[in-house]
Amino acid sequence: xxxxxxxxxxxxxxxxxxxxxxxxxxxxxxxxxxxxxxxxxxxxxxxxxxxxxxxxxxxxxxxxxxxxxxxxxxxxxxxxxxxxxxxxxxxxxxxxxxxxxxxxxxxxxxxxxxxxxxxxxxxxxxxxxxxxxxxxxxxxxxxxxxxxxxxxxxxxxxxxxxxxxxxxxxxxxxxxxxxxxxxx
Length: 184
Description:
eight-stranded mixed sheet; four-stranded mixed sheet
């Protein structure tokens, strides 16, 4: 019988500097790093984009982007289509400037439906917080066309394509008055 154990547990005689203790561990560490790059974040741009135009169309290659909305007159951000090819695509959208116009986040297609939900808070009224969810029947947009729907500075929305025709949204928007759903 051999004194060696399986290389993963490695309590045999070949411990220090041997293949079993260092070679396999190094290989596993490299595989972990590679897996993280390929399946998680290798294609994330981590690009910070300040949006000042009335319409901004996000592209599939802008996975992981951070958008800062900075146009009070109104902005529509259009997401890429939620297809099987871009499941996992994600971005964050921050409201930098309070809107006097409409802030709209549109799915890439009217057949792409929003799931998840958004918390709306009113900092002017202590404890005034509400949570709104899309009904997953026809909600393909977030439309903040009034202060009650979260168009004030300080909000953030996280977006992730989770399936074909399904876009998960979460985050917190800042509103004022009687808070109302921004889903349309």
